[in-house]
Amino acid sequence: MDSGSPMAGFLFLIVGFVVYFLPTFVASNRKHVNGTSIFLVNLFLGWTFLGWVIALVWASSANTVKTEEKIAPGKALSGERACPYCAETIKNAAIKCKHCGADVEPIKQPRLKQGWVASTACRDEAERDRTIEAMTAADLPVVPMIGLAVGAGPYETKEEAKQALIIMRDGPRLFSEIVYRDSMSGRYPLIAD
User: Which value, in Å, is the radius of gyration of the alpha carbons in the chain?
Assistant: First the structure.
């Protein structure tokens, strides 16, 4: 009795291999953080239907490796980026996409080393500490200036520094001036990340 052609047996073997290791392929394609563990569960427990289902569900979870985002210059200033899963626009600080519901890693903006600053002069250390508290409460980036002065920034454009100046004036009633703070002159302390 003929049991079939060798080609059909080989094709059956290939299809069985792909179906058996489907959770591993899904985890690898999604760059899952626990890809090796998923492979081991799939390899040793995949022969049981429950082990295979557990590996597939685990591979489909949102625990993936952080992708390096390529931020367009306009998007970086506006604080928005594309979701890595659905490509819709979301905030840089978002941890969940409002369009597809996927968990995403927030992007921290790199701190500029030089740029436009809304600088405020302080009379003594107590006033400087109160000014820093007020600026932090207004969600402004605080940077040391010359002497007891502190500033909000640095910002890439003068317009952004003017917006910070308006926030400082209208909110905590801090009066400041716009200056360019460079890292080359040696007049200002270095900015730590």
Answer: 27
Model confidence, pTM: 0.40
| CA 153-156-161 angle, 5° bins | 50
- Is-contact 111 105, C-beta < 8 A? no
First-to-last alpha carbon distance for the chain, in angstroms, is: 76
Residue with tokens 């007049």: 187
pLDDT at 78: 54
Sign of the CA dihedral with 148 first, then 176, 137, and 134 last:
positive
Residues 6 or more apart whose CB falls under 8 angstroms from that of 183 comprise: 113, 114, 190, 191
Which of 16-20, 108-112, 115-119, 142-146 tops mean pLDDT? 16-20
Tell me what pLDDT residue 141 has: 82
**What fold is seen in the domain 115-181?**
Alpha-Beta Plaits (3.30.70)
Domain map of the chain by residue range?
6-59, 67-108, 115-181
Q: CA of 25: how far to CAs of 42, 79, 83, 150, 157, in Å?
A: 10, 34, 23, 53, 46
- The sign of the torsion formed by the CA atoms of 71, 160, 116, 129 equals negative
Please provide the average confidence, as pLDDT, over all residues in the chain.
80
- The predicted structure's pLDDT at residue 188: 62
Closest CA to 155 of 192, 180, 187: 180
